[in-house]
Request: fold
Amino acid sequence: KNPNAKQWYQRRVREKAAAFVLRAVAKHSPPLAQAVVDSGALDALAICLEEFDPGVKEAAAWALGYIARHNGELAQSVVDSGAVPLLVLCIQEPELSLKRIAA
Reply:
């Protein structure tokens, strides 16, 4: 077996799980979403949008969307993180589910 393939897979699983947890926290209230922003997670979520795995991109796009929905200040935080151009690129991906989430 290729140890690099195993590490790659494990990293993708961790990234997807982390984005899912951030989404689960951020969706409940503006203060919780702000806590996610304050933790520095927006940079990590933006990086996840650049990953090859569509599942990682989807999880990150969901989390960013839940953060931005709460209010203008949080939406601006997502914009300031540089995630919007990466979300636009996700819309151009062939996976329909990713397009829906990123839009």
Observations:
- DSSP finds seven helices and no strands in the chain.
- The chain has a mean pLDDT of 89.
